[in-house]
Design goal:
Length: 210
């Protein structure tokens, strides 16, 4: 993915492999010695917060230019997205991830039409690559408010375009630590407004709360 979206700030990959039995890929990344956006947020001026949100939205657009006709990860494995899956059976081990796919576009479209609250929702063609977990814990910033790295790519995969903005609406991972000066939804709202400028609109869907 680095070769297809070279401007995305990724940590150095030390080692990677695909586990065929588990149907997923793994990365070992070099540690990035900076602070997360969550920790830096209270100290950042409004202009730097806006800059980070704008850059993040542009990174989403760059990644979305990489497309597929299959719902899958970058390595062709299943996708870890609990918001698009039913709750796990109580007998399922809590340590073992549950993956969806890989699924051909027609199969994935049928699956979503049965799962989402809007069965007539236009899934669109093709699917777009998306990080899918751009909460404040996964964005590492410098002291002057520049993005140094984007972490935690385990949910990344090829999604419908509407999911790029809709994920913000359903996932609590986009919340900040609320204080007297900070609304917990401030990052969600700011990133959402920047994604809208890039052409990504959220869809009102009812999904599992993962």
């Amino acid at each position: 993915m680095k070769s297809k979206a070279p401007c995305i700030p990724l940590p150095e990959v030390i080692y990677s492999w695909v586990d065929e039995e588990w149907n997923r890929s793994f990365l070992i990344l070099k540690r990035v010695a900076r602070q997360t956006l969550r920790d830096a947020w209270p100290r950042l001026p409004s202009s730097q917060r806006t800059y980070i949100a704008n850059r993040t939205a542009k990174y989403c657009s760059e990644l979305a230019a990489v497309t597929s006709l299959t719902f899958e990860s970058a390595t062709g494995c299943g996708v870890l997205e609990p918001f698009l899956m039913a709750s796990a059976d109580p007998s399922h081990p809590s340590w073992k991830p549950r993956l969806l796919g890989p699924l051909p576009l027609a199969t994935f479209t049928t699956y979503l039409s049965n799962w989402l609250s809007q069965p007539c929702l236009d899934i669109g063609l093709p699917l777009h690559f998306y990080h899918a977990d751009l909460g404040p814990d996964n964005i590492v910033v410098s002291d002057n408010g520049h993005i140094k790295a984007i972490l935690d790519w385990e949910s990344a995969g090829f999604y419908p375009k509407f999911w790029i903005a809709s994920k913000l609406v359903v996932s609590l991972a986009f919340n900040l630590n609320p204080t007297e000066e900070t609304k917990k939804g401030a990052w969600r709202e700011l990133l959402g407004s920047m994604l809208k400028k890039q052409g990504y609109e959220p869809v009102n869907v009812c999904v599992a709360q993962g």
